[in-house]
Amino acid sequence: MIAAMATDGTPGTATIVRLLGQRQLDVRSLVAGDARRDAPIAWIASSDLDDPTPFLSPGHVLLTTGRQLLEREGSADAYVDALVRGGILGLGFATGLHAPEVPSALVDACAAAGLPLFEVPLATPFLAIIHWCADLQRDRERWATSAQRAVAAAALAPTGHRAVVRRLATELGAGVALLDSSGRERATSRTAVPPAALAAARETLRSARRTTSTVVTAEGSVTVATLGSGDRSLGCVCIWTREPLDTAAQSVATVAAAWLEFSLVSAVDATRRLNELEGALAALALEGQADAVGALLLKTGRRLPSEPIVVASAETALARYAMEDALRDTAGDVLWTADGERLLFVVSLAERERLDAFLTRLDATAGVSQPSSWRHAPVAASEAAAALQRAKRTGAATATFERALDGLLGMLDDRDARDAARAQLSPIAAEADGAERLALVRTWFEQDCSWDATARVVGMHRHSVRSRIRAIAEQLQLDADAFADRATLWALLRAADVPRWQRP
Questions:
Q1: What is the pTM of this model?
Q2: Integer Cα distance of 143 and 464 in angstroms
C-alpha cells in the first residue's frame, strides 16, 4: 500500500501535491497550476475521450494517453477548457505510449488555464495511481470512523462542549472555536482564532441561515457549521485549516457539530430552567419579599445584591435565545427577571458599570432607579419603569430616574399632555405677539411669580408685567392671583414646552 501520512500519523488527504510526492509513482509536474493542486481528490479516473467530463465529477483527477489530442491538431485549448468547466482538479498525461513527450500545446493550454498537469511515465500504470488514491481514501475512512468515536466519547466528558472542541481540533489537526449566537467565543482550541475565521463565523451568524459553508482566505480555509434549528440559534462551530476539509474530515466535523448541538441544547434548557427559577425569586424580591428570597438564595450559594441597590427596567429587540446568550455571565450578585416584554435587573450600586455593560450588550433601552434599600425595592421598580418611559420618549439609550422628571410632574412631559396644553393655549399662540406674551408668563414663573424680578429681567415696568400676565390669565379663564389657577397656568406652559422670554 502506498499512502501519504500527515505529520501526526493521520492518513493525509489525497491531493495532487501529495501525488507528486510519491517517489514510487515517478510522476513529474509540468504545470503547477493554481489552488486546485491542494484540493482534496474525490477520485482518479482515466479516459481518452475527446470530452470525458460527462462521465466525471468535480474533484476528479483525469489520466489520459493523449491519443485524442494527437489525432486532432489545435484541440488542446478546447479540451482543457472542458476539463476546467467540469471541475477537474488536474490532468496526468502518459508518455511513451502514443507520444514520447507531453505536447507543448497541451502544456501551454494548462498553464493558461491554471490547470495542474503532470507527466506519467510508461513504467507507471494508471492503475497504480488509482490504487494509491483508493488506499488513501480507505485509510481516511477508517480514520474518520475512529475520530467520530473519539468525538462522541469526548461529548460524554464532564466538560461537555469544551471537550468536544478540543478533541475535534486534535483529530483534524485544525483550529476549532465554538461561538454562541451573538458571536462570542464559548470554547476554543489552544490556538487563537484568526481574525478572518472569526469574521466568517460572525457573518454566517448574522445571516441567520442554518448552513455549513467554507470560505477560502489568505490565511487558509474556514469552515463554519451553524448549530440549532428553525429560529433557535445556538451559535456555530468554526474550523480553520491550511487546506479545505475533505469528505472524511467533513464527516468528523458533522458528528462533532451534532454532539455540540446536543450538549448546548441540554445546557441551554438547564440554564433556562435555572433562569426561570431565579427570575421568579427576583420578582418576589421586587415585590417586597427580599428577606425570604435572600434566605433561599443562600442555600444555592448565591446572595442578594448588597445595599444600596439599583433597579433597571429594559426593553430589547433581541430574540429570546440571543438575549439569554448575552446574559450568560450574569452569574454572581445580579438578579434579573422577565416581566412581559421587559427585563428587570437588580444590582448593587457598586455594580452599576457592570449593569451598563449588560444593557449595552443587549442593545437595550433602559430606565434605572435611584439607589434604594431592599425594603423600598417596589418603589425602585416603579422608578425604573418611569425612567424607561422617559428614555423611550427622548430616544436615550438609558435614563436615570429623576423625581422632577419622572415623578408626578413627569406626566406633563407626556405627548398627550403636550398636545392638550398646546390646544388650550392655541388662541393666544395664534396672535401676532402670542409667543412673546406666553414667554413672559413662563419667565414670571421662573422668577417665582415676583413682579419686580420679572420686570427687571424683561425690561418692563412692574405694572406692565402685572397687567399683561393678568390679561393672559383672564383670557384662559384663570385668576393670576389664585394659587390653584397659577398652578394650572404653570402646568399648561410646562406641558406645552413654552420657551422663556428672550430680550429683543
A1: 0.51
A2: 99
